[in-house]
Design brief:
The protein is built from 7 helices and 10 strands. By secondary structure, the chain is α/β, with parallel strands linked by helices. The strands form 2 sheets. The chain has a 6-stranded mixed β-sheet, sandwiched between helices. Strands 2-1-4-5 form a 4-stranded antiparallel β-sheet, with helices on one face. β7, α6 and β8 form a beta-alpha-beta unit. It is globular and about 50 Å long. It binds adenosine-5'-diphosphate (2 copies). One adenosine-5'-diphosphate binds next to α1. One adenosine-5'-diphosphate binds next to β1, β2 and α1. GO terms for molecular function: ATP binding. This is ABC transporter ATP-binding protein. Belongs to the ABC transporter superfamily. InterPro entries: AAA+_ATPase, ABC_transporter-like_ATP-bd, ABC_transporter-like_CS, MacB-like_ATP-bd, P-loop_NTPase. It comes from Marinoscillum luteum.
């Protein structure tokens, strides 16, 4: 069943007397459980599209149905509510709280979701275990390697059991070997049924995805099944 359905999405930015058409017409359908990579040159509209898919922003025109909710035209608060429930974000820069332990970082989304302390710790520990870091629960980010930090961030993205994992250049700050181990983790999460949407400008990283969508100038240039899915395990 469809988890993402966008119809003729447009996004324009008005800059003084100029209007920038960041997205001109984007229609994409993604099924539950797919693993999709978005590629495209700088300025092609990837961030703009990810912000809309991730419910951080709304389109200027067109419709976006996320997990059967029409999120095309919601208020900030409604959007935040859907976002917290449906989306697990993974960023290039990890975005962890520096003074908090791995466990506390992972438990953070559960505070907003209203879980009590015991439930939070139990769920956060299970999520850390899922990314192979149960033994690093009390470590702070600066006591972890880059790859371990990204694993903590992935555990945080997963802890609320989101409909979609949205990863923006998840390996952008990692060396190749660590990048591939993060891609192995994504492959594992995909195999377990998670829906993963990733933005990357690295071909060898995109090749881990099962479908590759390329943007150019605010339009879809190509949308293809990846017949040679890469794996390092
Ligand atoms: P954003 O999505 O944050 O608006 P970009 O997608 O343009 O920004 O780039 C994300 C990061 O990847 C930036 O640090 C940028 O410098 C880098 N980057 C983008 N495209 C390339 C490329 N073709 N080669 C090397 N680095 C790139
Ligand atoms: P990418 O992530 O592929 O680098 P973006 O989505 O960041 O592309 O940008 C697409 C186009 O929209 C670019 O021309 C960019 O300058 C413009 N743009 C993006 N965000 C804004 C904004 N907040 N205000 C004005 N123009 C923007």
């Amino acid at each position: 069943s469809l988890i993402i359905d966008t119809k003729d999405i447009k996004k324009s930015y008005v800059m003084g007397s100029e209007t920038i058409h960041a997205l001109k017409s984007i229609s994409i359908q993604i099924e539950r459980g797919e693993y999709v990579a978005f590629m495209g040159p700088s300025g092609s509209g990837k961030s703009t599209l990810m912000n809309i898919i991730g419910c951080l922003d709304t389109p200027s025109d067109g419709t976006y149905i996320l997990n059967d909710h029409d999120v095309s035209d919601l208020t900030e608060n409604e959007l935040a509510e859907i976002r917290n429930k449906e989306i697990g974000f993974v960023f290039q820069t990890f975005n962890l709280l520096p003074r908090a332990s791995s466990l506390e970082n992972v438990a953070l989304p559960l505070i907003y979701a209203g879980y009590g302390k015991e439930d939070r710790e139990e769920k956060a520990l299970a999520a850390l275990d899922g990314v192979g870091l149960a033994d690093r629960a009390q470590h702070k980010p600066n006591e972890l390697s880059g790859g371990q930090r990204q694993r903590v961030a992935i555990a945080r993205a997963l802890v609320n059991d989101p409909s979609i994992i949205l990863a923006d250049e998840p390996t952008g700050n990692l060396d190749s070997k660590t990048s591939y181990s993060i891609m192995d983790l994504f492959a594992d999460l995909h195999q377990k049924g998670n829906t993963i949407i990733m933005v990357t400008h690295e071909e060898d990283i995109a090749e881990y995805a099962h479908r590759i969508i390329r943007l150019r100038d605010g339009l879809i240039e190509s949308d293809e099944v990846n017949k040679n899915v890469r794996s390092t395990v």
